[in-house]
User: Which sequence fits this backbone?
């Protein structure tokens, strides 16, 4: 009994000490620089300005701003321009939102702090500050928050509610495939029209196919999805959210091939009126299917882009319908372990990429895929290709997740390309 009391007392003392320790640490940093004031101003899509004011009796040598976007594991940093006069110090750091290296999308949560260096070789680290980067071209954003989905919208709350419901259902449905990655919130930023949205993603739009409208874009490191509101927004939101979930399930692996990423996103698309069947049928009928190993990028020709979406969706449907969701979960897990797609497929299903290609072609009634020598790849053999350098080296070019390719959704094409469908069939 006495022993118990002693232990309790010890724990209590430890607790007190710990609290005091933490308290003294905090006291230290705010004692060294007093009256700390932090603020941020955003001029989207141009710049973020980090601002600091404080009072210090010690001479400051440098002020470093460290910041992190969303789920990113790495910190970015840069140094403030600052002035110290008597006690007072004022500093600013301007950061470009859109660069060659990428864009921080609106809706991103940003966490930042300062490291202040003094001339006596000491430093302090200020407490974390948080803000959400908003598209400041508009000042009337509203937030609809529900379980795992945050939706920033303007004007239509009913639309946000409806989307939130569909997205939460999607999260539950995809749980068996993507596993335990659905709890961290995903942010959707809803734009009312195309010209508003293109301003937010313009740095990427140069690379997109001009004939295809971008209806949405997923940024997995920020866990943000940009969506064009309209009659197809449920399809767009669920498609793009699936990219985020697949990105989390594969731990951001660049080995995730584009056909699998897009096929899964289409598998998750909750707008069932969207179909690529016409394009796929045309691709099968005219021998315009690409071998899967080439679908690490989609063709630039809009006809063939649509065939590729249809093909990707059909292959993923075939895998899940024939072998189940658990196998798909295992395939993603194998990719996240760093296996190339041939190995990941073989270790999951017992066939490699060419094997899958031929099994699927047989399943949908398409002609077999011939290799360069004019031979049919043996689908039953299922042997692993030991070194597929071409695939592993170039897969990051086509992976949606790594370089933020525009995710183009077919739903709009039917409006946009009504005359175009005819031309596909007549050509
Ligand atoms: Zn996509």
Assistant:
């Amino acid at each position: 009994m006495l022993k118990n009391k002693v232990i309790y007392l010890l724990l209590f003392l430890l607790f007190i000490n710990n609290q005091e320790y933490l308290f003294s640490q905090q006291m230290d940093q705010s004692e060294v620089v007093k009256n700390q004031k932090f603020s941020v101003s955003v001029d989207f899509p141009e710049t973020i300005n980090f601002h600091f004011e404080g009072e210090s009796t010690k001479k400051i040598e440098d002020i470093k701003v460290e910041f992190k976007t969303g789920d990113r594991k790495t910190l970015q940093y840069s140094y403030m321009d600052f002035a110290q006069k008597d006690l007072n110090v004022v500093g600013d750091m301007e950061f470009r939102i859109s660069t060659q290296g990428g864009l921080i999308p609106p809706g991103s949560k940003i966490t930042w702090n300062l490291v202040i260096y003094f001339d006596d070789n000491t430093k302090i680290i200020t407490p974390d500050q948080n803000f959400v980067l908003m598209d400041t071209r508009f000042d009337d954003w509203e937030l609809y928050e529900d379980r795992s989905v945050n939706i920033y919208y303007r004007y239509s709350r009913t639309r946000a509610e409806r989307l939130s419901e569909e997205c939460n259902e999607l999260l539950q449905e995809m749980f068996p495939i993507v596993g335990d990655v659905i709890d961290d919130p995903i942010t959707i930023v809803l734009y009312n029209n195309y010209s508003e949205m293109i301003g937010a993603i313009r740095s990427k739009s140069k690379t997109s196919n001009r004939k295809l409208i971008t209806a949405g874009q997923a940024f997995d490191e920020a866990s943000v999805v940009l969506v064009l509101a309209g009659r197809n927004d449920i399809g767009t939101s669920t498609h793009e959210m699936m990219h985020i979930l697949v990105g989390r399930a594969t731990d951001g692996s660049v080995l995730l091939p584009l056909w699998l990423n897009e096929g899964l996103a289409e598998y998750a698309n909750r707008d069932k009126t969207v179909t690529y069947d016409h394009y796929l049928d045309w691709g099968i009928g005219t021998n315009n299917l690409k071998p899967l190993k080439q679908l690490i990028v989609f063709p630039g020709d809009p006809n063939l882009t649509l065939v590729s979406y249809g093909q990707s969706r059909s292959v993923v449907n075939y895998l899940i319908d024939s072998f189940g969701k658990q196998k798909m979960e295992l395939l993603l897990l194998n990719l996240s372990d760093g296996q190339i797609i041939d190995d990941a497929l073989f270790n999951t299903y017992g066939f490699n990429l060419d094997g899958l290609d031929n099994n699927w072609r047989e399943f949908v009634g398409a002609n077999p895929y011939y290799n360069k020598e004019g031979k049919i790849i043996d689908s039953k053999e299922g042997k692993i290709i030991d070194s597929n350098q071409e695939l592993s080296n170039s897969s990051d070019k086509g992976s949606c997740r790594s370089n933020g390719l525009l995710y183009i959704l077919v739903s709009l094409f039917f409006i946009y390309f009504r005359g175009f469908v005819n031309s596909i069939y007549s050509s």
In short: Residues 158 and 226 are 18 Å apart (CA to CA). Residues 2-32 form the longest helix (31 residues). Residues 239, 243, 262, 265, 400, 407 surround zinc ion (CB under 6 Å).
